[in-house]
Amino acid sequence: MRSRYSAFAVGDTAYLLRSWHSMTRPAALELDPAQRWTRLEILAATGGTAFHTEGTVAFRAHYTVHGHTDSQEEHSRFVHEDGQWVYVDALPDMS
């Protein structure tokens, strides 16, 4: 999760696509150049160790865009694919 956040922060779309599960990966990804990611908070995590094949991460990512500060929250699902952890999708909001 932290490496994907860092990739968003520096605009590394190639890494983001490589670290996305092959079944849910978009064909292309466009990032907003005006958006600046400023902080990542990990709220909860399950699995994700060498002993697991899947895991989840709940996070809040803070950003600014055009002088406006905001954040995005997501509960993400990750799995092992070809020996690497990859992002699958966002879990449904339970609230």
Automatic annotation (TrEMBL):
InterPro entries: NTF2-like_dom_sf, YchJ-like_M. Residues 1-90 form the YchJ-like middle NTF2-like domain. This is Preprotein translocase.
